[in-house]
Amino acid sequence: ESDGGLETELAGAISRSGDAKEALGGPFIYVLVMLISTLFFWADSPIGVVSMATMALGDGLADLIGRRFGSGNKWSFNRSKSMAGSAAFVAGSFVGSLGLITWLTNMGAMDPLALGTMGLVGRLFAIAVICAGVELIPLGDDNWTVPLSAALLSAILLN
Hints:
Elements: H1 4-14, H2 26-40, H3 46-69, H4 83-106, H5 116-136, H6 142-157
Helix pairs in contact: 2-3, 2-6, 3-4, 3-5, 3-6, 4-5, 5-6
């Protein structure tokens, strides 16, 4: 026999709506994407680092900041997203990606990129802005589209 109270608490912790069925959607996809990035790319590839930072920090901050500060600044073409959330997405993704790449390079886990600091900064900022735009497009689940976009852009811009 299941404990309905515990199921309700767990569903509320991992889903936005509190519906247990939602946990098999976005949160489950999120975990799969992070697992794949970890297994195939972490921590010696900027592709995995950027895709994981974009999902964990960019997308995570967009949700938190957007809920708290985004009620009065929704995008006209996607009323479920806010400018505050998008700004937080860009900031979190950019700072997280740059911080992790710098740390992993300094620790010797990742080979230095041949871009120079300003080249890396500019490209990571571009990836963050483009991925924030991808998150605004209401096609598909952004738990797939955002990290795949980050990985593709990283493969193109950082190699």
